[in-house]
Specification:
The structure holds 2 protein chains of 2 kinds.
Chain A: H1 2-28, E1 30-38, H2 44-56, H3 68-71, E2 75-81, H4 93-101, E3 119-127, H5 132-138, E4 142-150, H6 153-157, H7 166-178, H8 186-192, H9 203-222, H10 232-235, H11 259-263, H12 270-292, E5 299-304, H13 306-312, H14 314-329, H15 338-343, E6 349-354, H16 365-375, H17 377-385, E7 390-394, E8 401-408, E9 411-420, E10 438-443, H18 454-459, H19 482-490
Parallel strand pairs in A: 1-4, 1-5, 5-6, 6-7
Antiparallel strand pairs in A: 2-3, 3-4, 8-9, 9-10
Helix pairs in contact in A: 8-9, 14-17
Chain B: E1 12-14, H1 72-77, H2 83-110, H3 113-159, H4 163-166, H5 170-179, H6 185-206, H7 214-222, H8 229-265, H9 269-290, H10 297-312, H11 316-334, H12 338-361, H13 374-395
Helix pairs in contact in B: 2-3, 3-6, 6-8, 7-8, 8-9, 8-12, 8-13, 9-10, 9-12, 10-12, 12-13
Classes of the chains: A alpha/beta, B mainly alpha.
């Protein structure tokens, strides 16, 4: 008891120190922490590369018509500076630009390689202030320090685990397995066949089963298109690869045991071992992330690949809805404890963006947004209730297609012109990516404005194309509504 | 609506990628069958009844909320109450014309030169009168059209999908889409899209701006294919209306300043009153010309009336909020001479009139946060009066 109190006090002191430092910096200069997240494949890396490039070229060359500060010519550009927290990896901007430049691939520009872990980058944005007080303070030019933090959305799915114990988590996993995922989990199920909570299993065998479980998660994500997969670190371990803390798995059939019976099991039993690791994972992996990073964001943007989920089919689509439900819960999480409430600097603006809007024709953007809204119906209600300022967008961070019009039989049809990625797109295999790019003019199909019913998928399917990125050549990449997003996320600080 | 339209249209590929204007004959289809999917999901728990699809039906009417205050558009688009007067005028003109023509004819027949001259004069007078009346009516119609267009643009501002309608409570608004499940919102969106585009083009023509106007050119250059209607409107407001807004503000500031000085130096009260009225009308006319409207006598009066009404109704709360500031500036006015204080008062009144007219005249309504406020004008006015007062003091 006493121990915890001193620890809390020490933590508090550290927090106060940090907050005071931030406060000072905010007083002297302007500062903003913007977090970017999304489930893998949503386009986080492309978004960040584009965002940084738009800001860097904001004074000259970038098209940011919907950002009033840029439209008025007040935005002067941005510069990358060294980040404050040196223990966090820096965002690989150069690598992203290299792959977009297309100079290192025989096939032309490629999409940047995806995020694997948390990374950070600090920008200083120069602008001309408008308010009288600001003009008096910094004369003609002011700077806004923008910290960009990029982290996998999968990690957020772990946050509800903070409130679960091993038994509830296991039963949750069990219900998920029943919903169309069993195919990917066969090997793992075979391995735990016959294991009961009281059996004793040695370390190596545990590691083996855990790795089978990890394989299942990977397969369900890559081949099945599922996203609501916990524990998130199994998929994107970051710095924890191979550590024993990542060697556990849910134990089906715990419902048949009473809590007392489980508690009475010996220390070396399977149940106790797994529960111990689960607890450790919660305490030492999930909570620190929440505490060190998540809590300190000012602004947050969540990227969602709606079209990809439509392509994948009904079960993954339902799954995405569930995962987003969890994910958005975390934005309202943790204000229950008094201490947390005192220290909490809550997110004061939230943006939700359906990405890859360039893969459908412009008149479909409305339907795309309606669909996003339906997909998020429940979390949106909760966020509205908590009065979190929120806006949704349909964006394309890097616009890979061009909106055209085709006249056919005297009727005008919208169409997109672009280059399709080769057959093996999406795989990280360097030999096949980019093979056989084809220049096309197509109408990609309509986006349903309401959640499609499962029957619909049974008879037909969505097949939205995958375009290859455009040639950028050191300019700001073309985009759809990045300027509107920037206005919502930064606009009020550029005054 | 038929069941087909409830399902999204499938993708389609066009073959010649380099020409956007592809020929129909050279286009191949890679269409997937989707139309037949899930056709029989319409049945619900209540005993089903089928209507023939050809049967006429209309959307279930929901009660439209009454506007809280009758705006400019409401009053203007209301049927004129003086219909009898109009007919009387028209009748007089016609009869007078016929009589004058008849007299002329008779005179020509009878060789009575004087009577012929009178007839000719009468005909000319009637012609002039008719022309003036026609012009007035035409301009009144122009104003009415302008107001209607503005109302339509405002309506679209509320119902289309722009980022702004999504955020603050926007989710609730979009709930309308759920209420009419048979509406294919993709298509509806497309329709609204082209409609909106037409509206902006119509507005451009109505403001008599050619394609080579700097603002229009900048607007066209700023628009991209993927911009939503509301974004296009925002850009229009910035590129085309922005310069005019600034001009209007300058005009209001200058004219109200002049009015203030005039009132300050005028010796008689009735001169003050007529000065204020005349300057007010004058300012409104200039403002409306800035926004592409040419006002006749009747339309000017009507607008004046509307501005006053809007100041009395819609502006009441605003007035209350600003009254304290006005009192404060009256305190400041206490530091001026009595005459200069009076001038400041009428100048402020004039400026408020101008701002209100600007809000009513601007074809695209102002956003909440860009509505011009009187605060800055007040400071300008005060410094101007101070200067005038000092100059006066030195002279005397």
């Amino acid at each position: 008891m006493f121990n915890t109190m001193t620890r809390n006090a020490r933590q508090l002191a550290r927090d106060v120190g940090r907050e005071a430092h931030d406060l000072l910096e905010r007083g002297l200069d302007r500062q903003l922490r913007l977090a970017v997240t999304g489930l893998s494949g949503a386009g986080k890396t492309a978004f960040l590369v584009s965002l940084i490039e738009q800001l860097r070229h904001a004074g000259l060359g970038a098209r940011l018509e919907l950002l009033p500060a840029a439209r008025n010519g007040r935005l002067l550009g941005a510069e990358r500076v060294s980040q404050p927290d040196l223990s966090v990896p820096r965002f690989p901007l150069e690598a992203g630009l290299r792959s977009l430049s297309g100079q290192h691939s025989p096939y032309g520009p490629e999409w940047p390689t995806p995020t694997r872990s948390i990374s950070e980058l600090r920008l200083k944005i120069g602008f001309r202030p408008t308010s009288r007080a600001a003009r008096m303070l910094d004369s003609q030019r002011a700077t806004l320090t923008l910290d960009l933090i990029d982290y996998p959305g999968e990690w957020l799915l772990d946050l509800p685990m903070l409130e679960q114990d091993f038994t509830t988590w296991s039963s949750e996993c069990e219900t998920q397995l029943a919903d169309g995922r069993g195919d990917w989990a066969k090997d793992w199920m075979a391995a735990i066949e016959g294991l009961t909570p009281d059996s004793e299993v040695d370390e190596d065998r545990l590691a083996e089963i855990a790795s089978l479980y990890t394989d299942y998660l990977h397969a369900a994500r890559r081949k099945g298109g599922f996203v609501d997969l916990t524990p998130g670190r199994f998929l994107l371990p970051g710095e924890l690869d191979e550590a024993p803390v990542l060697q556990f798995f849910p134990l089906p059939g715990l419902g048949e045991w009473t809590a007392d019976a489980l508690a009475a099991l010996p220390e070396a039993s399977l149940y106790r071992t797994l529960a111990r690791r689960f607890d450790h994972y919660r305490r030492r992996v999930v909570r620190p992330f929440y505490h060190d990073h998540f809590r300190r964001f000012d602004r947050q943007i969540v990227l969602i690949d709606v079209l990809g989920a439509l392509n994948a089919g009904p079960a993954p689509f339902r799954d995405l809805s569930r995962a987003l439900d969890k994910l958005f819960d975390s934005f309202a999480y943790g204000r229950r404890h008094l201490l947390a409430r005192l220290m909490d600097r809550r997110i004061d603006r939230l943006a939700i963006a359906a990405t890859k809007a360039d893969h459908v024709t412009p008149e479909q953007h409305g339907a795309m947004r309606d669909l996003l809204e339906q997909l998020l119906a429940d979390p949106l209600k909760r966020l509205r209730y908590r009065d979190v300022p929120l806006k949704a967008f349909t964006i394309a961070a890097i616009r890979a297609s061009e909106a055209r019009e085709v006249v056919e039989n005297g009727q005008r049809h919208p169409a997109l012109a672009g280059h399709l990625l080769g057959e093996h797109e999406g795989t990280s295999d360097p030999d096949t990516q980019g093979a056989g790019r084809e220049s096309v003019l197509l109408f990609p199909g309509e986006v349903p404005s309401r959640l499609p019913d499962p029957n619909f998928w049974a008879e037909s399917r969505f097949d939205f194309p995958h375009f290859a990125p455009p040639q950028v050549d050191g300019k700001a990449p073309p985009h759809i509504r990045m300027d509107a997003v920037l206005d919502w996320l930064l606009g009020d600080h550029l005054k | 609506m038929t069941t087909e339209s409830r399902h999204p249209r499938p993708g389609k590929r066009f073959t010649s990628p380099n020409s956007a204007q592809a020929d129909a004959t050279s286009t191949t289809y890679a269409e997937r069958p989707t139309e037949s999917a899930a056709e029989s999901t319409a049945e619900s728990l209540r005993g089903a009844r089928h209507f023939s699809p050809e049967m006429e039906s209309q959307p279930l009417a929901a009660a439209e909320p009454e506007p809280a205050t009758p705006g400019l558009d409401a009053t203007l688009s209301a049927k004129p109450r003086h219909r009898g007067l109009k007919w009387l005028l028209l009748g007089t003109l016609t009869l007078g014309g016929v009589e004058a023509g008849h007299a002329l004819y008779q005179a020509a027949m009878g060789g009575d030169l004087i009577a012929g001259a009178w007839g000719l004069l009468g005909l000319g007078a009637i012609g002039l009168g008719a022309r003036a009346l026609g012009k007035e009516l035409f301009r009144l119609r122009h104003l009415r059209k302008h107001v209607a267009l503005r109302a339509e643009l405002e309506e679209h501002q509320q119902d289309d999908f722009g980022p702004e309608s999504f955020g603050q409570g926007g989710f609730g608004q979009r709930g309308d889409a759920l209420a009419t499940p048979d509406e294919d919102s993709g298509k509806a969106g497309g329709k609204a899209d082209s409609q909106q585009e037409d509206l902006l083009e119509q507005l451009r023509r109505q403001m008599k701006l050619g394609d080579d106007d700097a603002g229009v050119r900048a607007w066209r250059a700023a628009c991209e294919a993927h911009h939503s209607p509301s974004e296009r409107r925002e850009l229009f407001a910035f590129h085309v209306l922005g310069p005019r807004d600034r001009e209007a503000r300058r005009l209001i500031s200058r004219m109200s300043g002049e009015t203030a000085v005039m009132v300050a130096v005028s010796p008689l009260t009735w001169v003050d009153m007529s000065l204020v009225a005349w300057r007010g009308l004058r300012m409104m006319e200039r403002l409306s010309r800035l926004y592409g409207l040419e006002l006749g006598y009747a339309s000017r009066l009507r607008l004046f009336k509307e501005v006053l009404a809007s100041m009395a109704f819609a502006g009441a709360s605003e007035l209350a909020a600003e009254a304290s500031m006005d009192l404060l500036s009256m305190n400041l006015a206490g530091r001026l001479s009595t005459k200069a204080g009076q001038g400041l008062g009428s100048g402020l009144m004039n400026a408020r009139l101008g701002l209100r007219a600007m809000r009513l005249l601007r074809p695209i309504p102002f956003h909440e946060n860009e509505v011009p406020r009187i605060g800055e004008l007040r400071a300008e006015l005060f410094s101007r009066m101070r200067k005038a007062d000092k100059g006066e003091g030195e002279e005397s």
